[in-house]
Amino acid sequence: SVAFLAGYELDRKSGSQVFPVQKGVHTSIWKPGTSTNTANGTWVTTAIATRGTGDDVAVVVSVSRDALPDAKAYAEDVLSICAVVDARPESGIGQRAVEDADHAVALADNLAEVIRANRPKNGGRTHLFIAAPNALSFFLGQHRGALGNVQLYEFDFEGERGGSYSTSISLPH
Question: Cα separation of 146 and 163, whole Å?
Fold first, then answer.
């Protein structure tokens, strides 16, 4: 959520030259345009109808792990949403699903279009459940104009708050 918020506040129009540091096997600054990566940046999406009657939509972004089962269960039990959109990279899910900064930017650019196309009508919110590297979340946040009203969530991996999701940041402020 913090990486997304940083990108949101430092969007592409801000003129700031800020880049995320991505941890992993090798910690590095993920500055776009430093490689010739032409990796696939497309998404496989599936819209799933829910029992909810509200105008809100949940978008579940599964990159580093499959977040759909936990996010869908939370969304159906806690939220009044009309649909869940499952989004996963065409190249697959896993800890190495995002190769570098250029791949992260391509994925973020295309994901912003997926979110824009599925944004709720009538002033509803997009509920974002993101299981992805921070760099991808940062670059996605830079698309603030396409995202509309967003509610972010954090997963409780340690099991200290029930082992599920909880709200984190709501945008715009």
Answer: 31
pTM assigned to the model: 0.90
Predicted confidence (pLDDT) per residue in 105-148, tens digit: 999 999 999 999 998 887 889 999 999 999 999 999 999 988 99
DSSP symbol at 20? P
Tokens of 100: 């570098």
Angle made by CA atoms 27, 99, 22, in degrees to the nearest 5: 25
The helix (H) or strand (E) run that includes residue 128 is strand 126-131
Radius of gyration from C-alpha coordinates of the chain: 15
Q: How far is CA 161 from the centre of its chain?
A: 22
CB atoms near residue 112 (< 10 Å)? 19
Residue in the structure block whose two tokens are 């065409």? 90
